[in-house]
Specification:
Shape: flat
Number of helices: 4
Oligomer: single chain
Structural class: mainly alpha
Number of strands: 0
Helix content: over 70%
Strand content: under 5%
Number of domains: 1
Order of helices and strands: HHHH
Mean pLDDT: 89
Amino acid sequence: MTRELIAGLAWGGGIIAVALGATFARKLGYIDGDTETRVFNGMMGLIIIWNGNRMPKAFFPIALARKVSWVGGWSMVMSGLVYVGLWAFAPMPVAATAGCAAVVAGIVVPVGYCVWFGAKAKAV
């Protein structure tokens, strides 16, 4: 098995374990439903951060692809941090709306960078 596959399976197993643990803790009365939701969404944000951190480390032989990978990785790490912070501290409706907006912004930034760079290359 490749190292990336093992890491992905470990993250998947971790998500399942944390989700089951939070559900069990809620059923025992240790946490409420909101906390269970926050824990699960916090895990999703950590996965966004982890994947964003891995993006620039991938090898791309083309310089432009390396730049896009770096911008995309930086963007996803930042949006993941905002997502986790919102789910940890903001009211639930704000966390849901602003958290999704942060993730969408993290996706739009590298796409916009590609469009901008493509328009710049055509102008030259």
